[in-house]
Amino acid sequence: MTSENEFQSKLLESAVTELSRLPGVGRKTALRLALYMLRRDEREAVALGQSIIDLRRGIRYCSECHNISETELCPICADSRRDRSKICVVENVRDVLSVERTGRFTGLYHVLGGVISPIDGIGPDRLEIASLVSRVSANPEIDEVILALSPTMEGDTTAYYIYRNLTQNSHENLIVTRLARGVAVGNELEYTDELTLGRSILDRRPFDS
Amino acid sequence: MTSENEFQSKLLESAVTELSRLPGVGRKTALRLALYMLRRDEREAVALGQSIIDLRRGIRYCSECHNISETELCPICADSRRDRSKICVVENVRDVLSVERTGRFTGLYHVLGGVISPIDGIGPDRLEIASLVSRVSANPEIDEVILALSPTMEGDTTAYYIYRNLTQNSHENLIVTRLARGVAVGNELEYTDELTLGRSILDRRPFDS
């Protein structure tokens, strides 16, 4: 059989092709998903397809923090109860959700849209760094910027670049902080890598009971 | 935050919920897929959503063999070059595609829609067994039915049930066959399980060079 009529159905072929564009989905998995949807209620399959279309068509980005939003300002930026003096800088939308789930941060966010990575051709100009710097310098009420980036080479480079830019272009009272590094809560010490354990000794804190 | 506005967007929430209904997709993966689609071209995301809707709305089942089809008869049943004297009985649509890919079968198919499995509440009446028996008895040109079912307890039970029904209800010249069982091509003998190896000795064939 030729590959054109591999599935004996153009509709199935097309669904498999589109599904296999998703990350981590090969043609075998795509076929499994497509056949699964054929076995389900039509209503359910249509709801899935429509939700993807609606999502892509309806979602925009917050003009202030670049988080996803259905309106000009995202719900967090629009929420008057949030502490407007603290900005948490994250790599992407998923990290906003992660920090929100901790329930430990009540300020606003700034989503960079990635980290500096020369190997992937991502320079500072591809990220929302200039908008962060102008946002901070235009809002004297902001007194702290928390760099909540991954403790990787790229994350550290990006954090340093932002730190330099912020301190050169902002008011003097601004504090720039980063996430604490140390042993993960609930992890056995013997399985903690040396770099993390070493950092957790350097960053040790007074014992409070 | 309450779980209702976990994603700060009803559109995202809805897409994640629908995606996480797929087999093997949890909410974390669903979120990853949804955010991936947000980063892609609108055209691409809409094409994916639309292909799922079109698939579910456009696909029907072949009235003859119960394979998926976009027309009354599937392309295989409608193909006059296929050998109409041989019927290959398979569990599902995926198995049709698998057998087709081998290029070793030129006959027609019959898709059961599952195998007998009392534990899952699937009896013979839930499967396309009666339609197979009447199809074979109504077409004297059919001289062989190949039971291409998985060599599992359920597959074997189903094969035996079909075999009994076919031999009681069909013309005398009908041959019922099953797939050969033996060592997998390309596999080391030492990693072949005992049952399969034992079966391959019982089913040994004359050596042909």
Question: Could you please describe the fold and organization of this structure?
Answer:
Two copies of one chain form a homodimer. Chain A has 209 residues and is of the alpha/beta class. Chain A contains eight helices and six strands. The first copy, chain A, has helices at 10-19, 27-39, 42-58, 75-78, 93-102, 129-138, 153-169, 194-202, and strands spanning 60-61, 68-69, 83-90, 107-111, 144-147, 175-178. In chain A, the strands form two sheets. Chain A has a four-stranded parallel β-sheet with strand order 4-3-5-6. In chain A, helix 1 (10-19) crosses helix 2. Chain A is globular and about 65 Å long. The interface between A and B is large, with 60 and 60 residues.
